[in-house]
Amino acid sequence: GCELTASTKSYTFQVDEEDDSDHILALSVVCLTDGAKDECNVVEVIGRNHENQEIAVPVANLKLLCQPLLSLDNFKLQPPVTFRLAAGSGPVHLAGWHRIVPREDAFFEEDDDLSEEEEEEEEVELPPIMPAKK
């Protein structure tokens, strides 16, 4: 998570692009925290589109007395991404999660190293589906 305030208006989430993984950043909640004034606080996400052009999209407009919290249901973003307090003085807290996913080719290389015995151990027997009781 991070917090945006009048003195810290932006936060950039970056990853090491040299690793063999894909990164997913998901934004879960944006909320006003203690000390917020009853003013509009607009949070923007700044990223890049498919043509590698920088774009800014407002994702939350919070006001203390009518909407102090917004659930974004794990809004997925691809880093690097910057969060900016475009209006208001905050403080606004952003919370979410970061998932590192090995790329498929790296995943298959790891699988090739498994012995037949290890592969058999990884297979899981599922019980047969039984008819429902009436």
Automatic annotation (TrEMBL):
Compositionally biased tracts (Acidic residues): 108-125
Region of interest (Disordered), residue spans: 108-134
Superkingdom in the source lineage: Eukaryota
Encoding gene, per UniProt annotation: Npm3
Alphabetical GO biological process terms: chromatin remodeling
Protein's cellular compartments: Nucleus, Nucleolus
Pfam annotation, one family: Nucleoplasmin
Keywords: Acetylation, Chaperone, Methylation, Nucleus, Phosphoprotein
Signal peptide limits: none
Source species: Indicator maculatus
Domain Nucleoplasmin core residues, every copy: 1-99
GO annotations of cellular component type: cytoplasm; nucleolus; nucleoplasm
Family annotation (InterPro entries): Nucleoplasmin, Nucleoplasmin_core_dom, Nucleoplasmin_core_dom_sf
Single Gene Ontology MF annotation: histone binding
Protein's name according to its UniProt entry: Nucleoplasmin-3
Entry's family note: Belongs to the nucleoplasmin family.
Function: Plays a role in the regulation of diverse cellular processes such as ribosome biogenesis, chromatin remodeling or protein chaperoning. Modulates the histone chaperone function and the RNA-binding activity of nucleolar phosphoprotein B23/NPM. Efficiently mediates chromatin remodeling when included in a pentamer containing NPM3 and NPM.
Subunit description: Interacts with NPM (via N-terminus). Forms a pentamer with NPM at a ratio 4:1 (NPM3/NPM). Two pentamers form a decamer.
